[in-house]
Fold Class I SAM-dependent methyltransferase.
Amino acid sequence: MTKKDASLSQRVRAIPLLGYCLVWLKALIRLPVTRQQHTFALADLERRIGLQAEDLRRLHERVDALEPLLELVYVQVVEQTNRTVQAAESGLSKRLQQYDMLDLGARVMRLEKKVGSREFRTLLHRASRYSESPDKNKKRVDEAPTELTKMASPEHSLSAETSHAILVNPRPVQSQSPSTFDVDAFYYEFEQAFRGDEYAIAQRQRVYIDYLQDFLTLSKSDRSLFVDLGCGRGEWLSLLKEIGIPALGIDLNADKVQACRAIGLQAEVADALGFLSQQASDSLGGVTAFHLIEHISFESLIALFDSAYRALRPGGILIFETPNPENLITGACNFYYDPSHLKPIVPDVAVFMAKQRGFAKAQIVRLNPFEDHYQLPETDASARVLNQYLFGPRDYALIARK
């Protein structure tokens, strides 16, 4: 930088000796101002330090105040976690006990069958030995069938020692007169006791109205007859009458038919297969049967599908309701409340039968699960599985179209 371009201050400072003295003189003159500026800066710095110290003090106070609360929350979380773990362990233990009991029950049933079979064979073998000397053991041989019948009954389970005692020391058997058992009266009273309230059943059957909408759109003169096989007390017939669909009930039980007629319903005493075989082809709008197919043999069930298919008009509907064996309580216990039940039918098999016998469409509608208060809290997958298989739908309906 040249002297020409330098500032005045630099030019003055460049003067030998005089410039140096003038610079120091200027510094001495500005010293009070500079000191005051530094004093203000220090005061501002001290103020800021004081504010930061106050903020830090308040922060410590807040931390001190929160520390007991955090400690309390920590204790509560630990206690809640322990309770949750204990409840989960308790629930798991109960479920394991339930599984063990289910498995134990199945093993006991298998063992009882095996033991019963062995005792039965042993008794037959001993009976055949006694029959080799008819004169000497005629009385014992005559009594053996009676004792065998007793052993086969659920009320009287025999051990091997008891079986031996029967043949070695037989008790005299009193003859009984033939039974005058009235099957119709028995089954009518049985249904009154175990079938359930008629109003409740009718309300449950209203679910099927949604599947009859195409019939309800027809004029009354164009609505074909519905036939309800095994009409029972007439709950379904009453519902069909209410919505304006002509219906006829068929039942072998004369007492039930008379009960239907007494409330103004159309019903006849007839065999289901025999009645369907007498109907003209393509004449019926619907064939329904509620809790009937579990009463008949496999061959009769196939014949029922065939007869219903022939009698139904195109677009006609088939509704078969039956106990649902997917529900373990139903399949293993409640199904056998009715002594005339033969065997449960798996839903997929029912659909297969319908399609294999010619029905164009077939579907399963699962119905009537156990009430909510039976259900386990679904806190995990095992509870959901138990609810599904123990408290799920107790019945199902096969709904097929021709």
Observations:
- The longest strand covers residues 312-323.
- The mean pLDDT is 81.
- The beta strands are 226-229, 247-251, 267-269, 284-290, 312-323, 361-369, 393-401.
